[in-house]
Design brief:
By secondary structure, this protein is an all-beta fold. The chain has strands at about 10-15, 25-30, 30-35, 40-45, 55-60, 70-75, 85-90, 95-100, 100-110.
Length: about 110
């Protein structure tokens, strides 16, 4: 596929089960997804970016009407031309933690 300037350079949708049994449903320019622990994942790109100045956008389908879930870059995690590390989290009232069991979506632009 030809990538036009300004279009997504990589994207992935996957099951976020919080463990090692993670399934990629569909992707573009993503070679693999590695589970690094509870709701922390490394997304590995098939073709690397030219530099680290790319934009990441993530989302998740919530499995609860009482909690907000989100995908964020993992603090202190990998951000390189060939991989990016994320964490899927939830917030419910004053508590928060890692989330699992819902589809997650990640898109990368450059």
């Amino acid at each position: 596929d030809n990538v036009i300037n300004g279009s997504a350079k990589a994207w992935v949708t996957f099951s976020n089960v919080g463990g090692t049994n993670t399934t990629i449903f569909a992707s573009y320019n993503v070679s693999s997804l590695t589970s690094n622990g509870t709701s922390v994942y490394t997304i590995n790109f098939t073709n690397p970016f030219v530099d680290n100045n790319y934009c990441f956008v993530g989302g998740v389908v919530t499995d609860s009407n009482t909690a907000m879930e989100n995908v964020q870059g993992f603090a202190g995690g990998t951000r390189s031309t060939s991989a990016f590390q994320i964490q899927v989290r939830f917030e419910a009232g004053s508590s928060g933690g890692t989330a699992g069991g819902t589809p997650a979506y990640c898109v990368f632009f450059r």
